[in-house]
C-alpha cells in the first residue's frame, strides 16, 4: 500500500501565542488591562438627540410654499418613463411653487449611469433646479438624503426607492413624494397643504 496523498491546506496560519502569555519574558509581556471601578455617586451623562423645534408632534411647521423637494436619481428616471415634466407635475400635486433640489451625490449618480441616461442628466442640469453641495466623502445618495433631511426638516423627499422610503418614514415630519398612476402623489403631508391625496 502506497502512502495516502494528503490534501494541501491553503491559507493556514501558524498559531501565535498571546502577548500576555506566561511564557513571554516579564519585561516584553503586555500588561493586563485594569478595569476602572465606577463611582456610584458620579452623575451619569447620557447623550440624547435634541428634538427639533419645528415639529408639533408629527406636524412639521417648517413646511410651506415654496416647497423645496429633494429629488432622487430613480425619481427622475421614472418621471421620464411616465412622460412627466418634473416641475409642472410637482406643482399639480402640491398646488404651490416647488423648487426641486439636487445634491452633488445624486448628480454624480446620474453621471455614472452613462450615455443611456443623458436625458435624465439634461433634466437634472435644468436652471430651475437648485444645486445643493455635499461636504461628506463618497457619493452614496441615499445616506446623503437621509442625513440632510434629519438635520433640516424643511424638505420633501421625492423617490420611488422602497428602501429609501422605509428609512425616511422613520424620520418624523418628512413627507415623501412618489409616482403612482402616471402622476405624482405625496404621503405624510399635513392635509391643509397641497392637493387632495388619492
Highlighted features:
ribosome biogenesis, alpha/beta, two-stranded antiparallel sheet, 6-stranded mixed beta sheet, 198 residues, nucleus, rRNA-processing protein FCF1 homolog, 8 strands, 27% helix
Give a topology summary.
Layout: E1 55-56, E2 59-60, E3 67-71, H1 73-81, H2 86-94, E4 98-103, H3 104-112, H4 118-124, E5 130-132, H5 141-151, E6 155-158, H6 162-169, E7 176-180, E8 183-187
Helix pairs in contact: 1-4
Describe the structure.
One of its GO terms (cellular component) is small-subunit processome. The protein starts with 54 loop residues before the first strand and ends in an 11-residue tail after the last strand. The protein has helices at 73-81, 86-94, 104-112, 118-124, 141-151, 162-169, and strands at residues 55-56, 59-60, 67-71, 98-103, 130-132, 155-158, 176-180, 183-187. A hairpin with a 2-residue loop joins strand 1 and strand 2 (59-60). The protein is flat and about 80 Å long. The mean pLDDT is 86. The protein is of the alpha/beta class. Helix 1 (73-81) crosses helix 4 (118-124). A 6-stranded mixed β-sheet has the order 5-4-3-6-7-8, sandwiched between helices. It has a two-stranded antiparallel ribbon with strand order 1-2. The longest helix is centred in the last third of the chain and has 11 residues, at 141-151.
Short précis:
The protein is α/β, with parallel strands linked by helices and 198 residues long. It is built from 6 helices and 8 strands; from the N terminus they run E-E-E-H-H-E-H-H-E-H-E-H-E-E.
Distance between the termini: 82 Å
Average pLDDT, all residues: 86
The gross shape turns out to be: flat
Profile the largest sheet.
6 strands, mixed
Order of helices and strands: EEEHHEHHEHEHEE
Amino acid at each position: 500500500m502506497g502512502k495516502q496523498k494528503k490534501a494541501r491546506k491553503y491559507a493556514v496560519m501558524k498559531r501565535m501565542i498571546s502577548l500576555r502569555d506566561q511564557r513571554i519574558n516579564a519585561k516584553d509581556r503586555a500588561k493586563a488591562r485594569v478595569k476602572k471601578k465606577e463611582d456610584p455617586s458620579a452623575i451619569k451623562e447620557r447623550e440624547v438627540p435634541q428634538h427639533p423645534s419645528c415639529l408639533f408632534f408629527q406636524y412639521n411647521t417648517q413646511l410651506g410654499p415654496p416647497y423645496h423637494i429633494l429629488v432622487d436619481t430613480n425619481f427622475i428616471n421614472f418621471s421620464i418613463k411616465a412622460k412627466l415634466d418634473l416641475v409642472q407635475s410637482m406643482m399639480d400635486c402640491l398646488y404651490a411653487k416647488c423648487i426641486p433640489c439636487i445634491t452633488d451625490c445624486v448628480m454624480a449618480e446620474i453621471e455614472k449611469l452613462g450615455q443611456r441616461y443623458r436625458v435624465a442628466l439634461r433634466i437634472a442640469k435644468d436652471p430651475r433646479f437648485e444645486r445643493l453641495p455635499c461636504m461628506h466623502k463618497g457619493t452614496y445618495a441615499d445616506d446623503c438624503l437621509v442625513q440632510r433631511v434629519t438635520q433640516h426638516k424643511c424638505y420633501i423627499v421625492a423617490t420611488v426607492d422602497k428602501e429609501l422610503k422605509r428609512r425616511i418614514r422613520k424620520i418624523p415630519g418628512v413627507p415623501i413624494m412618489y409616482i403612482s398612476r402616471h402622476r405624482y402623489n405625496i404621503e405624510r403631508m399635513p392635509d391643509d397643504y397641497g392637493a387632495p391625496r388619492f
